[in-house]
Design a protein that fits this description.
The chain has 505 residues and is mostly helical. A hairpin with a 5-residue loop joins strand 1 and strand 2. It folds into 2 domains: 221 residues, Cytochrome Bc1 Complex, Chain D, domain 2 (Orthogonal Bundle); 188 residues, Orthogonal Bundle (Cytochrome Bc1 Complex, Chain D, domain 2), CATH 1.10.760. It binds heme C (2 copies).
Length: 505
């Protein structure tokens, strides 16, 4: 470019710029034209003190940190299963919404241990005879760090202090199933998630198997730690014991420490908890809307949000009575009488029922009450309810609006998972919960109201629920950080999951 052309280009450019700037000056100052529904939601957002961010005020680990990385390898390792055929990831895979996509989970004794999701079957020749053996649906591990009060459907893991935003990490400590209701477990670890990680390995159906019935909970944990660490002469030596030792030495920055001091059951739980707590998926369209982007969600979803947050008297669906705050849960227990499918927890006359929170508190008021689930990423965390009874989000919403009617007309064909027990007795097994709901309503003790909504209003509610999905949870490339590369464990214990077509998850 010669000198003259440069001047010419600059002149043209500056006159274009000048022209643009005049146009700009002529535009009237921007006013935020909120539509009527935006105004209504603005009010709702203020009244409910919503920020859009369920992790506000919390510190969570980075998945790239060495401890989260090691926690991930432990989470994906069948070496923590008694018979080395089940891992945490068996029921909580990131590509399956942090769950397993099954109504009722299958842990040990699967026909194909690394096949997860639809098509996973219990081995018909095992003593479980092909029946899914875990009586409750696996909740998602996504955003697990946002719980402050209780974990599990019945809250049997409970923060005694319940300090907001502390995740159970406060002075009062944590009650676990290893101690009596209301007491502190001195071995719980720092927070609810770490405390939880010490329990699946003690459950025969989930991970332990049935060959270790002579060991109590603490004995089985210590046995597993010594088996991974290859110390205390604990049978079945690893072909490459240095695999785990090196990783623990790196994660704890203790290059010369021994396996016995590093590879302890307490450290294992803490590492797994660190990995799980790094699973933060809160960048939802609804969050963007709450933060001010009026175009982040559709008009139909806005109408659904208004229904969600508005009381029945004012024409709403009053979902916020229980699903409140940025995490969409009050962390309390309610009986909403969802269909009791499967084998139950051994409660009731025939042992096929599940008394929920009552199992812990022994208070009549808590019978059939289950913890209010979060609704963040609910689109990908189905099947829904404590027993995985609903496989369709719309039906799940309808259930709340008239539980008796929905249970009476419950469509069993939605359960595509084979061999779920007691399907012919759903009405019978759910009846006591429905009767209790009637009684509670008469006594003014239930906040669940029957509500008449039109089809299009239920569709709007479902559209709103879909705005609670962080796009990352539907994108394998985005989730890759939380899934280890194939076959990293030279001992062959890493569970590299495939779906029913044999494709890698
Ligand atoms: C066989 C399936 C299975 C396996 C394996 C399994 N889980 Fe779970 N997980 C469940 C079920 C079912 C529940 C709910 C149990 C209940 O509420 O009674 C649950 C609950 C949880 C929760 C509480 C979630 C909440 O919202 O309250 C966390 C966290 C969790 N599991 C993490 C783990 C970890 C860590 C491991 C491995 C050490 C593991 N799970 C292994 C099925 C499984
Ligand atoms: C009385 C409290 C209460 C109210 C009001 C309520 N829910 Fe729920 N909701 C629950 C409980 C408790 C469960 C879990 C029931 C179970 O596990 O059996 C649940 C489950 C759900 C689920 C399934 C989530 C999962 O992970 O299993 C969805 C979706 C849902 N509710 C949406 C709604 C919507 C939409 C409304 C308003 C129409 C609403 N809820 C009103 C208490 C409530």
């Amino acid at each position: 470019m010669n000198h003259l052309t440069t001047i010419f280009v600059l002149t043209v450019a500056s006159s274009i710029m000048a022209c643009q700037s005049t146009t700009k000056e002529q535009t009237p100052p921007r006013v935020n034209h909120d539509s009527a529904i935006d105004k209504q939601l603005k009010q709702i957002i203020a009244t409910n003190h919503l920020t859009g961010n369920a992790m506000q005020g919390r510190s969570t680990p980075d998945i790239k940190s060495p401890k989260a990385q090691l926690g991930m390898r432990l989470f994906f390792s069948t070496s923590l299963g008694g018979d080395q055929d089940s891992a945490c990831v068996t029921c909580h895979h990131p590509a399956l919404g942090g769950g397993d996509n099954l109504s009722l989970p299958i842990g040990v004794a699967a026909e194909r241990p690394n096949l997860l999701g639809k098509g996973r079957l219990t081995d018909a020749n095992s003593h479980l005879k092909g029946v899914p053996s875990v009586p409750r649906n696996a909740p998602t591990t996504f955003n697990i760090a946002a719980w402050d009060e209780v974990l599990f459907h019945d809250g049997r893991l409970e923060s005694l202090g319940k300090t907001p935003s502390a995740g159970g990490n406060d002075q009062q400590g944590i009650r676990t199933p290893d101690v009596a209701f209301g007491l502190r477990d001195p071995l719980s670890g720092d927070n609810l998630v770490v405390a939880q990680a010490r329990f699946p390995v003690t459950s025969p159906e989930e991970m332990k198997g049935f060959d270790f019935e002579d060991k109590n909970n603490q004995e089985i944990r210590e046995y597993l730690a010594s088996r991974i660490g290859d110390y205390d002469d604990n049978h079945g030596h690893l072909s490459v014991p240095s695999y785990w030792l090196k990783q623990f030495q790196t994660a704890y920055q203790a290059p010369t420490a021994s396996a016995k001091t590093l590879i302890t059951e307490q450290n294992i739980a803490s590492l797994i908890g660190t990995y799980e707590r790094s699973q933060v998926f809160t960048n939802t369209p609804w969050r963007r809307y709450v933060e001010g982007d009026k175009t982040a969600i559709s008009e139909s979803a806005k109408a659904g949000a208004a229904l969600f947050y508005t009381a029945k008297q004012a024409g709403g669906a009053n979902c916020v009575a229980c699903h409140r705050g940025d995490f969409f849960t009050d962390e309390k227990f309610h009986n909403i009488a969802t269909p009791q499918i499967g084998n139950g927890k051994g409660d009731g006359a025939d042992g096929k029922s599940d008394f929920g929170r009552f199992r812990e508190t022994k208070k009549e008021a808590d019978k059939y009450a289950f913890r209010t689930p979060t609704l963040l990423n609910v689109e990908v965390t189905g099947p829904w309810t404590h027993a995985g009874a609903y496989t369709d989000l719309e039906a799940m919403v309808w259930h709340h609006l008239d539980p008796r009617d929905e249970v009476t007309n419950y469509d069993v064909s939605q359960l595509s998972q084979p061999n779920i027990a007691n399907l012919d007795k759903i009405q019978v097994n759910t009846q006591p919960a429905l009767e209790k709901l009637d009684k509670d309503r008469d006594a003014g003790l239930s906040v669940l109201q029957n509500i008449d909504l039109k089809d299009n209003q239920v569709a709007q509610l479902v559209d709103f629920l879909h705005t609670l999905t962080d796009p990352c949870v539907k994108n394998r490339a985005c989730l890759a950080k939380w899934i280890p590369n194939e076959s990293e464990d030279p001992n062959g214990h890493q569970l590299d999951a495939v779906d029913t077509y044999g494709d890698r998850l």
